[in-house]
Amino acid sequence: MRRVLGEPALTADELRADADRLRLLTEFRAAWAAGDHDAMTEVILAAIDLDWAEPTGPRLMDEIRGITTPADDRMSAADRAAHAAASHVRQYKAVA
Q: For position 91, what pLDDT does the model report?
Protein backbone atom coordinates (compact mmCIF):
# COMPACT_ATOMS: atom_id res chain seq x y z
CA MET A 1 0.00 0.00 0.00
CA ARG A 2 1.48 3.37 -0.94
CA ARG A 3 1.67 6.12 1.62
CA VAL A 4 2.08 9.82 1.12
CA LEU A 5 4.78 11.61 3.07
CA GLY A 6 3.34 12.79 6.36
CA GLU A 7 0.67 10.08 6.63
CA PRO A 8 0.74 7.82 9.68
CA ALA A 9 2.58 4.50 9.47
CA LEU A 10 0.69 1.35 8.56
CA THR A 11 -1.03 -0.50 11.36
CA ALA A 12 -0.43 -4.18 12.01
CA ASP A 13 -3.79 -5.00 10.40
CA GLU A 14 -2.91 -3.02 7.26
CA LEU A 15 0.48 -4.74 7.02
CA ARG A 16 -1.19 -8.14 7.43
CA ALA A 17 -3.76 -7.30 4.74
CA ASP A 18 -0.99 -6.17 2.36
CA ALA A 19 0.90 -9.42 2.98
CA ASP A 20 -2.32 -11.38 2.32
CA ARG A 21 -2.89 -9.46 -0.94
CA LEU A 22 0.64 -10.21 -2.12
CA ARG A 23 0.34 -13.89 -1.17
CA LEU A 24 -3.00 -14.28 -2.95
CA LEU A 25 -1.76 -12.46 -6.05
CA THR A 26 1.28 -14.74 -6.17
CA GLU A 27 -0.92 -17.82 -5.74
CA PHE A 28 -3.25 -16.63 -8.50
CA ARG A 29 -0.36 -16.05 -10.91
CA ALA A 30 0.97 -19.55 -10.20
CA ALA A 31 -2.48 -21.11 -10.69
CA TRP A 32 -3.01 -19.07 -13.88
CA ALA A 33 0.34 -20.24 -15.28
CA ALA A 34 -0.48 -23.87 -14.43
CA GLY A 35 -4.03 -23.64 -15.75
CA ASP A 36 -5.36 -24.80 -12.37
CA HIS A 37 -8.93 -23.49 -12.44
CA ASP A 38 -9.82 -24.87 -9.01
CA ALA A 39 -6.92 -23.00 -7.38
CA MET A 40 -7.81 -19.84 -9.32
CA THR A 41 -11.38 -20.06 -8.04
CA GLU A 42 -10.21 -20.48 -4.45
CA VAL A 43 -7.93 -17.44 -4.74
CA ILE A 44 -10.66 -15.34 -6.35
CA LEU A 45 -13.08 -16.18 -3.52
CA ALA A 46 -10.42 -15.32 -0.93
CA ALA A 47 -9.67 -12.06 -2.80
CA ILE A 48 -13.35 -11.10 -2.73
CA ASP A 49 -13.45 -11.77 1.01
CA LEU A 50 -10.31 -9.71 1.58
CA ASP A 51 -11.58 -6.81 -0.55
CA TRP A 52 -14.84 -6.84 1.39
CA ALA A 53 -13.08 -7.02 4.77
CA GLU A 54 -10.60 -4.22 3.92
CA PRO A 55 -12.61 -1.70 1.86
CA THR A 56 -10.03 1.09 2.27
CA GLY A 57 -7.11 -0.95 0.92
CA PRO A 58 -6.16 -1.61 -2.71
CA ARG A 59 -8.66 -3.90 -4.41
CA LEU A 60 -7.12 -7.27 -5.14
CA MET A 61 -9.87 -8.26 -7.55
CA ASP A 62 -8.93 -5.30 -9.77
CA GLU A 63 -5.38 -6.67 -9.92
CA ILE A 64 -6.63 -10.17 -10.75
CA ARG A 65 -8.91 -8.83 -13.48
CA GLY A 66 -5.87 -7.07 -14.96
CA ILE A 67 -4.04 -10.41 -15.18
CA THR A 68 -6.96 -12.19 -16.84
CA THR A 69 -7.91 -9.44 -19.30
CA PRO A 70 -6.47 -10.10 -22.76
CA ALA A 71 -4.08 -7.42 -23.94
CA ASP A 72 -6.31 -6.54 -26.92
CA ASP A 73 -9.12 -5.50 -24.55
CA ARG A 74 -6.82 -2.95 -22.94
CA MET A 75 -5.67 -1.46 -26.25
CA SER A 76 -7.25 1.73 -27.48
CA ALA A 77 -9.11 1.71 -30.80
CA ALA A 78 -6.22 3.59 -32.44
CA ASP A 79 -3.69 1.05 -31.13
CA ARG A 80 -5.83 -1.85 -32.40
CA ALA A 81 -6.07 -0.23 -35.83
CA ALA A 82 -2.32 0.35 -35.96
CA HIS A 83 -1.66 -3.22 -34.87
CA ALA A 84 -4.05 -4.60 -37.49
CA ALA A 85 -2.44 -2.46 -40.22
CA ALA A 86 1.03 -3.64 -39.21
CA SER A 87 -0.16 -7.26 -39.27
CA HIS A 88 -1.49 -6.85 -42.81
CA VAL A 89 1.83 -5.34 -43.92
CA ARG A 90 3.76 -8.27 -42.42
CA GLN A 91 1.41 -10.76 -44.10
CA TYR A 92 1.78 -8.96 -47.45
CA LYS A 93 5.59 -8.98 -47.21
CA ALA A 94 5.56 -12.68 -46.32
CA VAL A 95 3.50 -13.51 -49.42
CA ALA A 96 5.52 -11.30 -51.79
A: 46
